Amino acid sequence: MTAPHKSPGAARWEALAARWARHGKLVPKHSARDAVALGVQLLMLKDAAAHGTWRNSVNAMGLEARSAERFMALARHFANAPAALFDAIGSASKMTELLPLDEAQDLAQGGEVHGLTLERIKPMTVLELRKAVRTACARAAGVEVLPLTPPKPVRLSVDDERMLRLFRQCRAPAREALFSVAALLAQP
C-alpha cells in the first residue's frame, strides 16, 4: 500500500516544523531584528500550512497565535528596513509600537514622521514611544489629544448599590419600564 500524496505546502510545513522542534519550542524574541526574522519564517510557514491548521500548528510549537500574528505584522512592515532602524529601535516591543504609523518606512529611511525621528526614538522607553505615536496619529487625524486620566470612583449608598444590582438583573423590557417610571418621577 502506498502512502498518501502530500501537497508541497504540507511537506514544507512539516520540514520547517521538524527543524524548529529540534531546536526546542519557539520563544518570543526580544530584539527587533530577531522578531522580524521570526515573522518572516512564520509568514513562510503560514503560506505552507493547510487551510484551517495555522493556529493549532503554531500553538503546538509553543507560540500563541496572537504573538505569531504580531511577529508577522512586523515582518510585513519592516522586513526590508535598513540596519539603522533596528539599531535605533532595539527591542521588538518598541518596534511593535511603530506599527500604527502609516509612514513607518519614511522613518526607517531616516526621515521624520509626525515629529518622530530615529534619534528621538532611540532614548525613549516603550511607554514614552507609545504615547508619542498615539499623539502623532491623533494629530494627523485632526483629533484633539486629551490626557488619559482614570475616572473618579463613584460612591453609592447601600440602598443605591442594591437598586443598581437589581437593575442589572432585569431584562430589557423591565429596564425600559424602570426608565419610564424614573422619567415620570423626575417631572416637576
Please supply descriptive tags for the structure shown above.
mainly alpha, 0% strand, single chain, 188 residues
Question: What do these coordinates show?
Answer:
The protein has 188 residues and is mainly α. It is 62% helix and 0% strand. It is built from eleven helices and no strands. Helix 1 packs antiparallel against helix 2 and helix 2 (32-48) packs across helix 4 (65-78). It starts with 7 loop residues before the first helix and ends with a helix. The mean pLDDT is 78.
Shape designation: flat
- Secondary-structure-derived class: mainly alpha
Give me the strand/helix succession: HHHHHHHHHHH
**Amount of beta strand:** under 5%
In short:
By secondary structure, the protein is an all-alpha fold.
Question: Secondary-structure blueprint of this entry?
Answer:
Blueprint: H1 8-22, H2 32-48, H3 54-60, H4 65-78, H5 83-89, H6 92-97, H7 104-108, H8 118-121, H9 126-140, H10 158-169, H11 172-186
